[in-house]
Structures are given as C-alpha cells and as structure tokens.
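Progress note, project year one: complex with manganese (II) ion.
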Amino acid sequence: MSNLEAAPAEVACSSGVAGALPMVQVLQPREVPLGGPRAIRVQRTLPQRQRSLIGAWCFIDHYGPVHARMDVPPHPHTGLQTVSWLFSGGVEHRDSAGVHALVRPGELNLMTAGAGICHSEVSIESSAVLHGVQLWVALPDADRDADRDFGHYVPKSISLPGAVARVFLGELAGSRSPVHTFTPLLGAQIDLEPNAGLNIDVDAAFEHGVLCDSGHVQMGETTLAVADLGYQGPGNSTLHLANPGDRPARVVLLGGTPFAEQLLMWWNFVGRSHEDIVGYRQMWEDADDRFGAVTGYRGSVTRLPAPPLPTTRLRPRPIPERKEHT
Ligand code: MN
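Model obtained:
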C-alpha cells in the first residue's frame, strides 16, 4: 500500500573529511500498516519528504522478522513494477495476468503492472516468520502502459571479501541479472560477515541506497540502524560497506540512474497527473477491465477499495535534486 502520510522524518547527514568517503544521507523509516483486514506493520523509507526516488526505485518497505501473516486482498497497480524479496517465510502471489506464484527467500519476483494489474499477496500457511522487503520501480513514460508481466529469477550467491552477494537486478561484482528493466537499475542482497569491510565498485552514473536489514552497518562513515536507508549520490565509483559487529549483518543495495521524469504517486498508482490518478481510481472502483481480476484468492474481503481522494489537487513529485553528494 502506498498511502502518503505526512509524518515527519528525520534526516542526518554526515560529511566525510576532505578526500575521505562519500557523504551519506540517512533516511529513517516510519511505521505504516500494510493494507488488508489483518494488517502487518512495515517500515517505509521511500517515498518520504527528503527523497522520492533512488534511480527508478520509488517505494521501499521493510518488514519482519515477525510472527505474523500477510494477507493483502486484490488491489490495483499502474505505471510500476513490484519486487518481492524475502529473507524468510513465503508468500502466495496471484494476479490478473493469471500468474499464481510462490515467493520464496532469495528469489526475485518482478511483477510489471504497466497500464494496469491487480494482485493479492498471502503468507503461506506453514511459514511462521515473515521477513523481507517490498520494492517498487517506476516505469518511464514510454513504457508505463506496458503489458502485464511477471518475471522470476534465482540469483547465484557470489563471494566478495567478507561478504556474499545475490544480484537480483542489474550488475554488481561481475554478477549480472538477466531480468529486463526499463531503466538502468541495481538490486542486490549483501550479507556481511562479522568484522568485515569492503569497497564495492559501482556505476558512477548511479545513485545508490543501502537498506539495513540486520546488524549495524557502516556505509561510508555513517552508521545505519535496522530499516534505515543510506543514500549515496551519483558521481561515486565506490561504495564502502562495513560490519563492525561480531555477528553477521545484511543489507539490500539498490541503485539506478537518477530518474528525471516527474511522477505522481497516490495509493498504489504511479501516474503523471491528477487526472491520471482520478481516472485510475475510478476505473478500479468500477471494476474496469484495465485491472482485470484475480482468481483463487480466498479472503473475507474480495478486493481492497480505493481510499477517498484528498480534497486538494494532487501534485507531481518534484524532479529529484541534482545536487551530488560527493
Ligand atoms: Mn501490491
């Protein structure tokens, strides 16, 4: 779910010593209930006031580890792709493209909404602990009405000094995901050994985000707590990560070239104008063919109703600041 609440969020910037590591901006999470009659609570770091996007990544939710069930009834999306990435547990996905998939830890499941899709997400009964991230990618204008699609990929683990990486989108350390993206993107899980530190070569045209899943991880000279998102701007060809603790730590590394188009995000829709959003909302309420229908979902609520529109006109998100954090 993507209700945009105006909760204040703190931002901390640490500037490195001249010639030292790149400056990192810390985006702290806010707790949000995920939709549905039995909502679980998630930690959301994108979008927020300080930052709307990292590359085309436009939405970052982190949840668990928690003994809870996810049960999100059929709900619509437009103009985006969703990435479900689990560390533990299992989620049953059903969508209006006719896909029925089991989302498992370490496996990329990339749903392309394009012009419109609807889907449900329900924990697999046997899975006691739910732990993972839900990420959205904004589609560029030329592709935002693309066909519905669903991609699946299981990346191999690759060894780095003091770490293991699984590259699910894009390329890192010689490992390349074959999954197509509409803009240049990077997505990888990196598990850090205790007392490890490494410098990773990254694309200098990309901006990067490091979502801390476990441990206290250093990104550059900045420490990230669990569910914090560290941001490093473009213009840097190295990303420094360290785990100073005596237990393993884990992050999700996201990146992409700065997304230059204006977006308007509301609820589960990505559009370009107030009129887009009003239209999408009405079509969902009218059960329009744009979104199709999910079959096989067995919840007490057959579909999530759209929330009421705000009384004020929705405005596009500003184009991301071009200032480079170097
Ligand atoms: Mn969804």
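The first helix runs from residue 274 to 285.
The chain has one helix and 27 strands.
No further modelling is planned for this target in the current period.
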